[in-house]
Design goal:
alpha/beta, Lysozyme-like, 2 domains, 3-stranded mixed β-sheet, 6 helices, 7 strands, 12% strand
Length: 222
């Protein structure tokens, strides 16, 4: 981003900027979606001395790319929370869109514009770690259930059963979300509030009765 998440939010919301990306990942692990995947973002249209073999000559790259911006500046060491968030987002995009995990399918902006974007995503971006984790995560969970507390166990078991007895996780004592749960392609949250997962289903309400009603509706398929 060459700046902050809040600053990017504001700049992308300004029509005069004429720039956007599909996602932004903050240093604290927040993921913001700016553009629906059905629509192109205005991030990769400028082609200047590219070094990308999958570039389609004569076609604006915005029409066939998904763009992710990361809070910070070139050379910043990515905080662990930000890394885990972008890893989860990459895994979700790989699974959702069928993107091959190769260095020609997941690229930095500098591969499209090596002149004006030569430092994008920055010298501190953990490319080797990202590809290692993505390649090892080829068997990532399709669906996982996350419980707010152990009191939600039986509701969670019913939801997991509907999804082929998928994995069930419980938030930590500090309400943190287990890292493995965040790598699932879809996360179903039973009780409590939203997580930072990019593809979640929230089955909860203001109290246990609302949560029970949300779970019953989900199980009933309504």
């Amino acid at each position: 981003m060459a700046g902050t998440l809040a600053g990017t939010d504001s700049w992308f919301a300004n029509p005069t900027s004429k720039v956007s990306s599909h996602f932004g990942v903050g240093k604290n692990g927040e993921i913001h979606q700016y553009v629906d995947l059905k629509n192109p973002a205005w991030a990769n249209g400028g082609v200047n001395k590219p070094a990308w073999p999958l570039l389609i000559l004569g076609v604006n790259p915005n029409y066939y790319t998904v763009s992710i911006e990361h809070e910070g500046n070139s050379g910043d060491v990515m905080p662990e929370a930000q890394y885990q968030a972008t890893l989860a987002l990459h895994r979700w995009l790989v699974g959702t869109l069928g993107i091959p995990v190769t260095r020609d399918n997941i690229i930095g902006h500098y591969r499209i514009d090596s002149v004006n974007k030569s430092n994008c995503p920055g010298t501190g971006f953990p490319w080797d770690r990202l590809f290692k984790d993505l390649q090892e995560g080829s068997d990532v969970l399709k669906v996982a259930v996350l419980l707010y507390t152990k009191d939600d166990f039986w509701a969670g078991v019913d939801v997991a059963s509907k999804n082929g007895n998928c994995a069930v996780f419980v938030r930590g004592g500090d309400l943190s979300v287990p890292a493995e749960a965040m790598t699932a392609k879809q996360l179903i949250v039973v009780g409590g509030g939203k997580t930072k997962h990019p593809n979640e289903i929230l089955l909860s309400g203001k109290d246990k009765y609302d949560t029970a009603a949300a779970v019953a509706k989900y199980l009933g398929g309504n």
